[in-house]
Amino acid sequence: MAKNEKLVIISTVGNEHPEKATLPFVLATAAQALDVKVVLILQSNAVILAKQGEAEKILAKGFMPVKDLIQSYSEMGGKLLLCSPCLKERNISNDELIDNTQIIAAGTIVTEILSATSVLTY
After folding, report:
1. pTM of the prediction?
2. Residues in contact with 5: Cβ distance below 8 Å, sequence separation at least 6, in sequence order
3. Which of 9, 37, 101, 110 has the greatest CB tally within 10 Å of its CB?
């Protein structure tokens, strides 16, 4: 894979559907293993996965636990970008977030999308 490839993955699914919540992290780590730059954006209910103690609760049959996938994603240089209004709507404060997160707004999302080779949305 060419190192100038950039994949933006936008996830909107949280604990309400474990399989759909897991898939963005599976694809993110697979892309990273292929030397693709990955930007993973959590919006809507997906921001819950960045709250301390929540990723541990997401287990989809046949997949690695979300907590382990997030750890792998981070170890390979990935950062979770979190929708600021989505966090506020769910009363999740900065001190409740896991490490390696960044709170962003719509402008950052647009910038990431416009600079991407491909965009996936879950």
Report:
1. 0.95
2. 35, 36, 37, 117, 118
3. 9
